[in-house]
Write a structure and sequence with these properties.
Elements (H helix, E strand, L loop, with lengths): L13 H21 L3 H11 E6 L2 E2 L1 E3 L5 E13 L18 H6 L9 E7 L1 H9 L5 E10 L7 H4 L11 H5 L1 H4 E2 L2 E7 L5 E3 L8 E4 L3 H17 L4 E7 L6 E7 L18 H4 L9 H11 L7 E4 L2 E4 L2 E4 L7 E4 H6 L3 H8 L4 H10 L28 H6 L8 H13 L2 E3 L4 E5 L5 E4 L4 E4 L3 H16 L14 E11 L2 E15 L6 E8 L8 H4 L1 H13 L10
Parallel strand pairs: 3-10
Antiparallel strand pairs: 1-8, 2-7, 3-4, 4-5, 4-6, 8-9, 10-18, 11-12, 11-23, 13-16, 14-15, 17-20, 18-19, 21-22, 22-23
Helix pairs in contact: 8-18, 10-16, 15-16
Length: 556
């Protein structure tokens, strides 16, 4: 009998169950981590990540001593949300915001945002907040602030309501100073503490060569003189003649960049770079230097100087309308003889003199870091006819900006090197990168050291015994040159309208400072540069000495 066949039994392994369960878990993990639900993702991110809007900001502008000249501060602005606003609450804001705004929000409005007040003072902001009006909200913005008011206003310039530069350094360096509105990523760890998800960028900064102490002195004395002599405009510059660094730049009348309601087109012009005028006798040392280098005159020549000299189709007259007799080349500068200079001027060749003056920077816009500047007026060689060469030799018939004239004089003072001016010592962008450094730049050599020594000696005599004697001071040995120029209108010089100036440097033995002071159209009686400008320069130098701005080597 055959044995019975036992059917084969199949059993399910328990590991299959665990494998399926593990597979489901793995799938869910992949689904949740790689393909999360958008709603869940949004909620989870809101717990750990955030994006906060950041308003526009501007970097700081500082002087050479580290003092803030312009910076941005947080201020309050207010708006209403019409969805939550009750027009019946509008009268509560009367006296705190303009009446026109109160009238506007007294009616039913559309939308979700209506501006009520912008960048208000802390006191006013507190008064508005105290009202606790429903639908009225505060928002924080950045406001440009100038801690020293009108000081250096023409150089600094100003910004619009949104913080963009409109003039001066604020405009010229807008791309460096201005950081447009954006967002900042914020994060939190598991316990909810906020973390900074990205490194903060360094605040942009522009550091100037300006010394705020010298700036204050220049503006104080410029304002006093302009008021006393009833001038139409004024300008003053102080710089280092060995480097070209500008230590102070003042323009009158002043304006306060923080008060934009008072701004007008006439007050915001920076006269140091934006106004061209005929320099008069302050131009004579430069022309004399060119004449000596060109062989047009010798240092030991003498000239007969009558009260009036006929030159081609015109006349050159001495300032005091009296003959000066026989003068040496040096005495022509010391006594500021127009007739003597004219005799040298007519020896020049128009084309050669024109080209030489161009190499000195006249008739060209300055490359100072202030953006657009005036070029001045240098007539083409074809216009140098008749009395023109004589006129140019005495600083008439040519128009310069105060900065052009001052930079021309640096060559006389430092031994012959014509320097480029610079106002910005260093500029740093919002990321902390240095994008610019100002430094000494000699454009070219325009005079020999021997000619410079001769001119400096003569300019010292001009202060010691010549027309600049009112600038003489016991605190240092000052050298300089006075200037009195007639004002031209429609091609003719107008009687009674003058520009008074003084251009000087000190200490005479080792010059460290060069100062130009210009007063446009004084109308209180006096108008000669020796009467009007020289005494002011003396006060400025003595003020600087009193504050110990220059060292003992500059003081007798």
């Amino acid at each position: 009998m055959a044995p019975a066949i036992t059917p084969k039994r199949y059993t399910i392994s328990p590991w299959i169950f665990f494998a399926v369960l593990f597979g489901i878990v793995i799938w869910k993990l992949v689904e949740y981590h790689c393909f999360p639900d958008p709603l869940v993702l949004s909620r989870s991110r809101s717990q750990y990540w955030g994006r906060a809007s950041v308003g526009s900001s501007r970097g700081v502008i500082r002087d050479s001593l580290g003092n803030d000249l312009a910076h941005s501060v947080t201020t309050s602005s207010f708006f209403i949300d019409p969805m939550h606003w009750s027009p019946s609450d509008a009268p509560a804001l009367r006296g705190l915001v303009p009446d026109a705004v109160v009238e506007q929000i007294s009616h039913v409005l559309k939308g979700r945002y209506v501006r009520v007040a912008r960048k208000v003072s802390p006191d006013l902001a507190q008064k508005i907040l105290t009202l606790k009006l429903k639908g009225l909200y505060e928002e924080k913005e950045k406001k440009r602030e100038y801690p020293h008011g009108a000081l250096l206003s023409h150089v600094l310039g100003f910004c619009d309501a949104d913080g963009a530069g409109l003039s001066g350094l604020e405009l010229a360096w807008d791309s460096t100073l201005y950081e447009p509105p954006g967002y900042r990523i914020l994060s939190r760890h598991a316990r909810g503490r906020a973390l900074n998800g990205q490194r903060d960028g360094s605040l942009a900064a522009v550091t100037l060569t300006i010394d705020i102490r010298i700036q204050y002195i220049l503006e104080k004395r410029l304002n006093e003189a302009a008021v006393q002599h009833k001038a139409k405009w004024g300008a003053a510059l102080c710089l280092d003649p060995n480097t070209g660094a500008l230590l102070a730049m003042a323009s009158w009348p002043f304006f306060n960049p923080s008060n934009r309601d008072e701004l007008d087109s006439s007050s915001i012009v920076n006269n140091t770079v934006g106004r061209a005028y005929e320099p008069g006798s302050t131009f004579k040392p430069i022309f004399m230097g060119i004449a000596l280098e060109s062989g047009l005159v010798r240092a030991n020549e003498t000239f007969n100087c009558p009260a009036r000299l006929k030159v081609a189709d015109g006349f050159i007259t001495e300032a005091y309308k009296r003959a000066m007799g026989t003068l040496s080349t040096a005495e022509i500068l010391v006594k500021s003889s127009n007739v003597g200079m004219a005799q040298i001027g007519v020896r020049s060749t128009p084309l050669d003199m024109y080209r030489t003056l161009l190499t000195w920077g006249f008739g060209k816009a300055s490359d100072v870091e202030l953006g657009k500047t005036e070029k001045g007026l240098l007539a083409s060689p074809g216009q140098w006819r008749g009395v023109m060469p004589a006129n140019v030799s005495i600083g008439q018939g040519i128009a310069v900006t105060p900065l052009q004239l001052a930079m021309g004089m640096t060559a006389v003072v430092n031994g012959g090197k014509l320097l480029s001016p610079y106002l910005v010592r260093e500029a740093v962008d919002p990321a902390g990168e240095v994008v610019y450094r100002g430094s000494r730049h000699a454009a070219r050599e325009v005079l020999t050291p021997a000619t410079c020594r001769w001119l400096r000696t003569v300019m010292r005599e001009s202060v010691a015994v010549g027309t600049g004697w009112r600038a003489e001071t016991p605190v240092t040995r000052l050298a300089g040159k006075t200037g009195t120029a007639q004002v031209a209108e429609k091609g003719k010089y107008v009687e009674g309208r003058y520009v008074s100036s003084f251009l000087g440097f000190w200490p005479y033995e080792n010059p460290r400072y060069l100062l130009l002071f210009v007063l446009g159209e004084p109308s209180a009686g006096q108008y000669y540069g020796g009467e009007v400008a020289a005494p002011v320069v003396k006060k400025i130098v003595e003020d600087m000495a009193e504050l110990k701005i220059f060292g003992s080597e500059a003081i007798l």
